[in-house]
Design goal:
Blueprint: E1 16-17, E2 20-21, H1 22-43, H2 45-52, H3 57-84, H4 88-109, H5 126-157, H6 164-194, E3 196-197, E4 203-204, H7 206-224, H8 237-246, H9 268-283, H10 288-294, H11 300-305, H12 315-336, H13 343-371, E5 380-387, E6 393-398, E7 402-406, E8 415-418, E9 424-429, E10 432-437, E11 444-453, E12 456-464, E13 471-476, E14 482-486, E15 489-494, E16 503-504, E17 512-517, E18 520-525, E19 534-543, E20 546-555, H14 566-589, H15 596-621, H16 626-649, H17 656-687
Parallel strand pairs: 5-11, 13-19
Antiparallel strand pairs: 1-2, 3-4, 5-8, 6-7, 6-9, 9-10, 11-12, 13-16, 14-15, 14-17, 17-18, 19-20
Helix pairs in contact: 1-5, 1-6, 1-7, 2-3, 3-4, 3-5, 3-15, 4-5, 4-7, 5-15, 6-7, 6-12, 6-14, 10-13, 10-15, 10-16, 12-14, 13-14, 13-16, 14-15
Amino acid sequence: YISRSEEKDSSSSRPSCLGYPLSIFFIIINEFCERFSYYGMRAVLVLYFKYFLQWDDNLSTAIYHTFVALCYLTPILGALVADSWLGKFKTIVSLSIVYTIGQAIMSVSSINDLTDHNRDGFPDNVSVHIALSMIGLILIALGTGGIKPCVSAFGGDQFEDHQEKQRTRFFSIFYLSINAGSLLSTIITPILRAQECGIHSKQRCYPLAFGVPAALMAVALAFINICNAIKQNSVSPQFAIKNRFRHRSKEFPKREHWLDWASEKYDKRLIAQTKMVLKVLFLYIPLPMFWALFDQQGSRWTLQATTMDGNFTVNPILIIIMVPVVDALVYPLIKKCKINFTPLRKITVGMFLASLAFVAAALVQVQIDKTLPVFPAAGQSQIKIINLGTNDATVQFEPKLQSVDVMSMKSTGYMTFETSQLQSLNIASGNKTINAVVKLPGGSRHTLGVKNTATGIDIKWVSLLTFPRYILMFINNLPDAVNVTMGGTSFGTLMPLSASNYNLFPGGRKDKIVAVRNSIPCSVTSKAFGFGSAYTIVINRCVGDTLNVTYSEDIPPNTVHMAWQIPQYFILTCAEVVFSVTGLEFSYSQAPSNMKAVLQAGWLLTVAVGNIIVLIVAGASKLSEQWAEYVLFAALLLAVCIIFAVMAYFYTYTDVNEIEAQLDEEEKKQGKKDQDDYEKQSEAVSQM
């Protein structure tokens, strides 16, 4: 396949299809596979951090954005390698291999049985999994970031100067392929994760969820092998600065641009091309703020969704719809209204819409916060009583803090006490009483099982020190030991009046509960647990082969439906279409022919800086309410949007082809002049 740096008069022999270079279709397929790999892995990454590595929300968010930032910092490295050393083709192939290895390591790192030597369903050495995960993520960041500026720029290189319309449409199709890969991966990968796999114990199948993206990356590697490399050069700004500093005396005349001070080392063409690149890069300075908001779809908005009811994917679907709608309907309509909707104006509108999307997210968060349970503060304890006996019970919290009556086989809600004040409990049931001293850690929830037996009142404490959702615990209220499983997850053998550990479970579905007592199984189909809920299930008796259980709700299910996120996703998708698609095409159109990858890398660098901004703002703001953080980001982007609008107003668009044609003409004239001078000198020498 032929690049722009090769002979332009060979375009007539270039393979084509539907008026486009044939290589374009292979590049689009490659991009689809690569984006499926990246977004598929990213779709479950925060959940992998939270539920497999057992990190909290803040650490999961911080590592997620650090990874994304690294993915968009490495394009600079990829562009430099491509432009100055290997060329685009070798750079893409080399880093794609690194990328595929990284995805494979991520898949291996998520294999629970790798360190589960005691076969209890949990890794015995989490640090091994963390180390492998970090190595995998670093390799993925190096690979995906390194090839980003090369693929899109290489696609643009396939077009001739007279194919500007096709090239513009290519960037829309290119972006469409990105979101097609994203759409399928964000649907398929969570389904793969939801499968249960493992050798000794069945767990959420992260190895499959990460393994399929690794396979798709190998497919992408195969497709990109049809492309050719291009070698490019650039001016060193440091030389210009140093040279200007050496000639700062008034005896040296001023030059039109500070890069002109590099003319002693570099030719006029290279200096002019570098000016064009720096002009655009300066305009990119405000853009990272957009990505600071946009990439929170994968962190804060995902975590917001875990506190809601439902399960669906929105953004990629909207992108698939909105890209052709905006390209074929909205832009032509705006043009008919005689509105000059320039690329920079489109980018400005995209920034404003993203700010509006976060206002919508804040409004949704306010409604969510009204439904969330109140957990204990550091100096508080919350206690729930479950009466496991056949008699009613009365519990008095001493010293005379509160008294509560609990009917047989019923439970109370959580009651909050100051940990330092609660000293003991007086429990009365039937004609029996018991006094129990209480020493509980602060900032935690506790369930107290109470049972009136023939020998007295038995009690059982179960503490919940953290508050994850989608969890279950079993209490054995039978006189014999039972082995409990639910939906393939083992809760172990429970002695009489003992409790299992809390285990994660998927919400929104029913599972079969099996309790094996004296080698005789009893079973029952559970009720459908709401999204975000947590339950304690009491095993009461086994009649025939039917198990009798009661449910005690520890955390209520989410009540705000995920459909309320649709407006914020719709607005952000519209912002993405007018901002990102335009930015890719603008970066290409304003870049000289030998610096396309550099400017694409500059565009991608804004994404990296945006994710770093998330880490800084989220860490420095110290806002306790999530809705307030959303409003803060919206306000920051709105302010940056105004600044960018002013910068865009004074920006002068560059006709790269015209400038390079002028340079060609000047070089041609200079070459002719040099030839004439040489001939005159040769004639003068021959006459001597």
